[in-house]
Amino acid sequence: MRRLFLLLVPTVFVFAACDPGTDLGEDPEESTWDVIQARILQPKCAEACHAAGTTHAEASGLVLTADVAYEQLVGEPPTNSAARNAGLLRVHSSPSTDLYQSYLWVKINAPEQDRLYKDTPEFGSLMPLGTPPLTYGELNYIRRWLLAGAPKDGVVADEIVLTDTATYRQQHYEPLPELAFEEGISLRLEPFEVAPNFEREFFVRDPYTLDQDRLIKRSTMSMRPGSHHFIAYTFSDRTPANRLPLKGQVRDLRQPNGALNGGVFQQMQYHEFFSGTQWPRMDYRFPDGVALHVHEGTTFDMNSHYVNLTSEPAIGEVQVNLEFAQPGEVQHVAHVLNLNNTEFELPARKVTTVSRTFRANERLNVFTLFSHAHKHMIEFRVEISGGARDGEMVYLATDYEHPPILEISPPLVIEEGQGLRLVTTYNNWTDETKRFGFLSTDEMMILFGYYYTDAGKGWEPGPGGPFTPVSGMATSR
């Protein structure tokens, strides 16, 4: 915290020393808002992402071109459900309102990015995404405008502060501590390069092989900025020997020209989700007395996806720690919940709602839920199917990039014959029909989570798995 204060002092001093009612810039008629729009939002936000019809504008519901930016920002609630539920507006219009009640400030304030990623990771990534952060001068200029009530007209900040072109740079990156052999498993993707203007997604089968059956009580992940997701997979028992990749081999999903690597795509068919996150940092602890079972002989296939929108190479890095529980500490052995709907179509230029119901084959205690979809998803709901609570919503996500991880205590009990209904709405603004697929240009409809059964320490789910898909439908408008 002291280091952060020293970084901010010089620019705050320059800002405070200026008379906010005096315009020392070249154009005395140009309002503070007009300067923000023309010099910051248009070149750094609208041109790259937030223009009408672009992927990011459609996903976030935010267009920052001059014709609509002010109306879409000031007084409007954010699309991000966590920020909206916390009472934030995109921009508050009340003078001297706490800066952190304006979602815009939280998302652009690079010097306090740890506050974003550690305290409110569900708010999403620092903006502008994949490009250098705003300068100290730009931040101070926007800060003064926010504190003045975000007026559309008039001069409330001196343009001289924009001459401070220094940008915040993260001083160092601290990986997670390496776990001792008896404490758990440490998985590592050492620093790797992501080419300019490229999405790199790759897999590495970790050299480590589990020496005996183990119970996992905690999963901690940390990634350098720019990550879209990290997932640790295992391979199913039905994986042919010739489909198992070599340990330590880096397998990129795409060639440098963007073409799909067919061999890697085929290997993905045998993946089973184990743990993962779309947040830059995650520290997930299973409830007291609950741990996740891992078989002897298990190896992990590490999947990292990074986005680099800059013209320079970027560096990614991922660390994962899986901590062991002792058998005597565990009353319930957890299993992975993976409900995957692969049978849907999203017509071009339509908003489509897809539903799929999964029926439980035995009584289940569900204690964690989180969704996964791609950029066309605008809402992902989960409802109880059957019984007295039929239709009750138990999970909601409106941000595909950073879906909430819902921890349910006491667990949600799903009786045998009841189930969960996934209801997902997509906006396919493209001219092509979208279907389920593994690429970022395709779509997904997956509900992950964890559960345990009344069998207590039974280490295997019931025959055929915990759920059976029983019905599905789609409606478009």
SSE-based structural type:
alpha+beta
Number of helices: 9
β-sheet strand percentage: 25-35%
How far from one another are the termini? 50 Å
The count of β-strands is 21
Instruction: Report mean pLDDT, rounded to a whole number.
Output: 84
Search tags:
477 residues; alpha+beta; five-stranded antiparallel sheet; disordered N terminus; nine-stranded mixed sheet; globular
Explain the layout of strands and helices:
Blueprint: H1 2-17, H2 32-46, H3 55-60, H4 69-73, H5 81-85, H6 103-108, H7 113-119, H8 136-147, E1 184-194, E2 198-205, E3 214-223, E4 227-235, E5 250-252, H9 262-268, E6 271-277, E7 281-285, E8 290-294, E9 301-308, E10 314-325, E11 332-340, E12 345-346, E13 350-360, E14 364-372, E15 377-385, E16 393-397, E17 406-414, E18 419-428, E19 434-435, E20 446-453, E21 467-476
Parallel strand pairs: 8-11
Antiparallel strand pairs: 1-10, 2-5, 2-9, 3-7, 3-8, 3-10, 4-6, 4-9, 11-20, 12-19, 13-18, 13-21, 14-17, 14-20, 15-16, 15-18
Helix pairs in contact: 1-8, 2-8
